[in-house]
Amino acid sequence: MHFLIPRHAVLALTFLGTLISWPLAVSQGLIWLWLAIPCTALFILGVYDLIQTRRAIRRNYPVLGNLRFLFELIRPEIRQYFLEDDTNAAPFSRAQRSLVYQRAKQEIDKRPFGTQRDVYGDGYEWINHSMAPIHIADSDFRISVGGADCTQPYSMSVLNISAMSFGALSANAILALNDGARLGNFAHDTGEGGISAHHKKAGGALIWNIGSGYFGCRDERGNFSEEAFTRNATLPQVKMIEIKLSQGAKPGHGGILPGAKVTIEIAEARGVQPGQDCNSPAMHSAFDSPISLMHFIAKLRRLSGGKPVGIKFCVGHPWEWFAIVKAMLETNITPDFVVVDGGEGGTGAAPVEFTDHVGTPLREALRLVHNTLVGTGLRERVKVGASGKIISGFDMARTLALGADWCNAARGFMFAIGCIQAQACHTDKCPTGVATQDPLRQRALVVPDKAPRVANFHRNTLKALAELLSAAGIQHPAALRPHHIAQRISSSEVRLLSAAYPELRPGELLTGVFRHTIYRAAWPMARADSFAPTYDLGDALSRMHAEAVEAAAPAMAHQ
């Protein structure tokens, strides 16, 4: 009876094909097996579809319903290779990926016939050029990181590899990235997964990222260990130490690596036991307030032998960042650097709600951090790094103009070693061997071939940045300012980034007179001895509204 229902027509055809083809195969020759075997297999599948209870579509449309799941499985590939627009950045456009591939492979990265972008569309940006461009002989732009308390400052490139842990990335990916950093003389951030043997093998400069799990510097209970820290921090290869407070892709969210994934290599790098769950709490245990964070920074600087120590975080509640700055003022201890991670940052796996809706985007976050340091007179003592979807020389120019001293890139360097944005990082089935611990999959990533591509991408991106600076008449990225970048607001309105993101005056916040709402509301809420606010933001906004009404009352009465 089921065969009489139209939606079962395909099942009926497979039954008829099976019924007819097997006698033909017996009587006419084995050549008919080409029909008999597929028809039989599909008929068996159709019968199973009818009796299974988990998939309604397959139950109602036996055989045919399986196409829905097949197309759903390959939908990302179909969209990426056949339907995706070249400039549709989700999360990175085909044009962005192609640019990295070309620069990494030393292929032509020029484009004919004009821009593909809508120059009159909202959000279009450009750098204003000079009638008197200059010549820049050396594009290896560097800055010195390390304040007065540092005895081992680091001369840092303005483009470096952002934090990606061994465990999230394969051994071969780590080897290729670090060897590329060595070849290009720039830095490689370890990510919070610790310093592995693969980080050490090539000898590239490392920024040791220390998260709340204290991997590589923990005792048996998971607490910070001075002895373990000193052992790694004093390695000549380690140039800076970065305390990770949060990350842009999942700020405020801890993590756990299941014991089944904790291999001997990963356990060795992290200082944990193989086969046991590896916990990364949402909060640090080595400090509990902004002031104790400053003392922790000073301790790490001392234990490392005077190397630069800084913090990395994604901006959330502004008063918490203000509290850290107030602690700097109160203790006279400053981090050597701050890395601002934008909410658009990537990760191997994160809850969708965190990826899409938690964390301040890079531009607003970077401007807040830069302005706060300027407004408290601390900007000269603290260098600022930034990370969040940085691919091209223009991405760098805009980020540096908004207040960063250097840029970090993660996914851009992943593209350089072969990532195709398959977005399978969380499945351990990365098709190119970049984000997997499967030894058979990662062997596809050939380190001697990919390491030079990492260096090529770095060098060619800095050359592109130098060309932009040359056209703008700027000698070094440190001279970039928001007024150098223009942004279209609508088809008839353009403004400079200096208008969108105004600059505070040096020491302005110390006067107690606040020109901007964010500081007027949140700066008084911050306290150096706690991350908690002194009062509720709603109360602050209500008070500000009442003051505004009171100030406007005389003018209203006069009218």
From TrEMBL:
Molecular function in Gene Ontology: glutamate synthase activity
Membrane-traversing stretches: 31-51
InterPro entries: Aldolase_TIM, GltB, Glu_synthdom, YerD
CDD domains, per database record: GltS_FMN
Keyword Transmembrane belongs to the record: yes
Keyword set includes Membrane: yes
Stretches of the chain forming a coiled coil according to its record: none
The Glutamate synthase domain, residue ranges: 158-474
Keywords: Membrane, Transmembrane, Transmembrane helix
Gene Ontology terms describing biological process: glutamate biosynthetic process
Family: Belongs to the glutamate synthase family.
Name recorded for this polypeptide: FMN-binding glutamate synthase family protein
